[in-house]
Specification:
single chain, alpha/beta, five-stranded parallel beta sheet, 8 helices, 5 strands, 49% helix, globular
C-alpha cells in the first residue's frame, strides 16, 4: 500500500443489481453534509456499452453478440486473440484514466466514494484483470504485463473501507432484467472472493430493505472515519 497521505476512500462493490448506484448516491448526499465528497465510477462499463449497442435498430443485436463472443475470448483457455486482447487492454486503460481523476480529487483532500474498485485477486468481470489468461509471449503477453502493472499500481491505493454488497441471482435479475443471467451469476459468485489487499471490508445483505442497507453502510463509515 502506498504511504502517501490521502483523504478517505470508501469503495462500494457488488454485482450488477446489488444496489451500488442507489447506495452510493444516498451516501454521497449524507457525507456531503459534513465533508466535501465526490462519487467516482471506476468500472470499465463494457456491459453498459454492449447493452446500448443491442438497442440499435437492425444491427444492434448482431453487434452485441459479436462483443459477447469476443469478450469471451478472454476466458478461453487458449487466451484471447491479438485484436480481442487489444480491445480488452483499451478498456482497462479507460479504467486507469478514471482512477487517475479519482486520485487527483483524493489528493486535494476530497473524500471519495468509489462505485467499484480495481483488484488483481479475482480475474474477470468483477473489476479484475481482463488479460489474466493471455499468452505470455508476443503481443498479447506484452499487453497482459502492462495491464497487470497498471492494476497493481491502482490496487496499491487501498480503500479506507470496502462496502461489499451481496445479493442473490433472483433479486439481481429482478432489478436488472436486461442483464444476462450467466454473467450476473458469475459476478455474484465472485463478490465474496474479493479481498482488496486486506482493506477493511463490511459485508451487507442488499436483498434487505434499502433503508436498512444504507443505515448499516453509514454506521460502518462512521466507525472508520471516527475511530
Amino acid at each position: 500500500m502506498t504511504g502517501e497521505a490521502l483523504a478517505p476512500l470508501i469503495a462500494i462493490v457488488g454485482s450488477d443489481g446489488s444496489g451500488k448506484s442507489t447506495v452510493g448516491e444516498a451516501l454521497l448526499a449524507w457525507l456531503n453534509e459534513s465533508r466535501r465528497t465526490e462519487l467516482h465510477h471506476l468500472g470499465k462499463q463494457t456491459g453498459n456499452i454492449g447493452r446500448a449497442i443491442a438497442r440499435w435498430p437492425i444491427v444492434g443485436q448482431r453487434l452485441d453478440k459479436t462483443i459477447v463472443r469476443k469478450s469471451g475470448g478472454a476466458r478461453d483457455p487458449k487466451g484471447p486473440g491479438a485484436f480481442t486482447a487489444l480491445v480488452i487492454y483499451l478498456f482497462s486503460m479507460r479504467r486507469v484514466r478514471r482512477f487517475k481523476r479519482m486520485l487527483a480529487d483524493r489528493r486535494r483532500g476530497i473524500t471519495i466514494l468509489a462505485d467499484r474498485f480495481p483488484q488483481t485477486a479475482v480475474p474477470g468481470p468483477m473489476d479484475g484483470l481482463g488479460l489474466a489468461k493471455a499468452r505470455s509471449s508476443g503481443f498479447q503477453g506484452m499487453l497482459a504485463r502492462r495491464e497487470r502493472r497498471h492494476y497493481e499500481w491502482m490496487e496499491a491505493y487501498r480503500p479506507t473501507l470496502v462496502i461489499r454488497l451481496n445479493v442473490d441471482l433472483a433479486t439481481a435479475l429482478a432489478r436488472k432484467p436486461d442483464h444476462r443471467p450467466s454473467s450476473l451469476k458469475t459476478k455474484i459468485e465472485d463478490v465474496p472472493r474479493l479481498t482488496f489487499d486486506g482493506a477493511p471490508i463490511v459485508d451487507l445483505d442488499s436483498t434487505r430493505p434499502l433503508e436498512e442497507v444504507i443505515a448499516d453502510a453509514k454506521a460502518a463509515i462512521l466507525r472508520v472515519l471516527n475511530p
